[in-house]
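Sync notes, pocket subgroup
Present: LS, DG
LS reminded everyone that the earlier model was apo-only. Rerun requested with acetamide included. Inputs:
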Amino acid sequence: MRRASGSNTGGFKTWALLLLATLAAGCGDAPGPQAADAKQTPAVQPATAVPALPLIPMPASTARGEGGFPVRADTPVIAAANDPAARQAAQQFARLLEESFGAAPRVSDAGDAGHAIAFITDPQLKASAEGYVLEVSSDGVRIRARGAAGLFYGGVSLWQLLSADGENQLPVTLPAVRIDDAPRFAWRGFMLDSARHLQSVGEIKRLLDQMARHKLNVFHWHLTDDQGWRLEIKRYPKLTQVGAWRVPAGKAGRDSVGKPVRYGGFYTQAQAREIVEYARQLHITVVPEIELPGHAQAAIASYPELGVTGKAPPVSPDWGVHTWLFNVEDPTFTFLENVLNEVMAVFPGQYIHIGGDEADKYQWQHSPQVQARRKALGLADDMQLQSWFIKRIEKFLVAHERRLIGWDEILEGGLPPEATVMSWRGTKGAVEAARQGHDVVLTPSDVTYLNRMQSEEVDEPPAHDYPTPLKAVYDFEPVPPELDAEQAKHVMGTQANLWTEHVRTEARVEHMAFPRLSALAEVAWSPKASRDWNGFLQRLAPQMRRFARAGIRAADSAFAVRIDAQPQGDGAKVALANQAGFGELRYTTDGTEPNARSARYAQPLQLKLPATLAGNAFLDGKPLARTRNQRIDAALLRSRDAEQLAPCRKQGYVLRVEDDEPLQGERAVVPVDIAGPCWLWKQAPLEGAASLRAEIVDLPYNFQFGGESAAAAPPNQANAPAALQVFGNTCEGRPLASAKVAQTDAATEQLEIALPSPMATRDLCLKFSGDYRHTLWAIDRVELVPAAR
Ligand code: ACM
């Protein structure tokens, strides 16, 4: 669907005028159309009659009135001196205004409440504990709630209304409106993995700030895993002396003179308390996660007696499912209870997360001692043993008036009586647990795992397998349809999880989290019936500017212009699109930055070579993304980034993996099927090609797939030096051509393979010889080099 280009003076002020005009004409809100399929169609412009209030998450209910209220820099913000909750919320609101407008209004005692912004605790208010009522009239703004959380959320909504135009200037005239808001779900979570890579206390506070601004209220903090133990436990100092440090895989694990690099760190209890308190002020509960009985390698590296074999493993530099489990002896439970005692002293929230996922039973199965204990306990199998383990921990937590929550594997062998289940392997676990009368939190990995890439573009950072675009998160419905109304009451809410195996830096944490967490916030807070993808995108545009203002490096993957150039005659046919199919796509070909007056893209362009194309998407005259640039020449048309090649296996396990070098600075990031590295170049234009030039990287192979695969044949160390082989489309038989890889000190190697000639356009399959579990060679880019004329 397309609409004529609007005026470009937009933003919130225009929005307010438009709204007033529409209200005067007697029109109401109309839901926007669904976005067209993003991949192929030109971007569409939303056709919402009245733009929705620029809020994320969308409130439960809004009613618009007549007139409006101008908020000026000197508009008083008031809260009664004897209303501490209101005073706190008003102060927090003032700090949000300071971020947007450069100066914080002074918060003063009530007095004359007219023409002011007033925060009021109202115990009689008909609202839920976290709900609020926000009223804007020509007399001023009132935010009322029963308690501190509601007042805070009301302040956040008001700040969003004021900061929507991105001009960072007061006055802003608000239209008259009454918002009655309350969350759909009680558990609105975000999980951060600080075990695989840890983040600074400052960064975690920044994330908590953003959570609170999205009305999210549970920070699930993943603190222990095979790759690191991150919380100081005073009784067991080796957990952080030993368990908090690892030697990274590959070249990242050696310094310039070949000495091992120690990588890691931990949070002191004082720092954890600081985070708990910071979160509390933002109405966020911190749920710590201490993993058991699996994901325990760092703990066992610190105290080998906790393990099954008695041996001390290293703190793992690998990713995936490891084999090191806690043993099932009483002293191990004493250890875990002592640890949990310290954890409970730091984290006052009701829930303690005990992990429970991916406990591969290999070590238990192969241990006579564990099996003897299992039999003595009268347990039929290792699933029952795991269940016994978790139940024993639950008993301890319940005795301390806490509640156990764990990943859905805790269903196996039988759930502890009061356990809450976090369903990650789809929604099956939630359905089963809710039917058994247990509370559940929905966090299915296919739509709520923010460690997955947001798009398959070359500029995405490293990530887990397959894309989870913004829309996939937005479309998630947390209540599984299999549940009846009574069972559905056990759905406490939903949560987005950010595992950080491939998220090494804080900038990348932000890129992966935002704006997908904005989508999750709407899923968790807003009424199901109000879900509107196009309206969300429209409201996301100002949110992206708020992110920028706060220094949050949010991903623009949904809006970024993708430039696809194909040969056409002696030039190129160039198509533009963006993932969300949203905004006006505009471009230049003269090297200048595209702006809201640049040529508007409507259909594929015919360009002479060489050309330089720059494109962006715009809404209301403002850019939605970073400009994307592409030089289009003959060499580009003969080349492919690895992202433009297909994996040979349909069900491959394609990760975006980061190179392990250089030690400092930018590293290559490549998509590679880590369980069968192989690339298909469909319809490679081979006419006239003399050779294939490849840019390749050697990656450390640091992946584990549980006990059976660890016990299988080890990688062949005495492998013949690898060669890059070029096959026809079957990837089998004798290669058409190949060339040996010459390992140099360069991070990216160049390889040139002479091709038989003549060849016609055909599919090519590219593979490296040798055992990829020894050295994981991967393609970064390939190019066909023409014969010299
Ligand atoms: C998980 O993703 N292993 C809970």
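DG: The chain is about 25% helix and 25% strand.
LS: Residues 30 and 49 are 6 Å apart (CA to CA).
Action: DG to write up.
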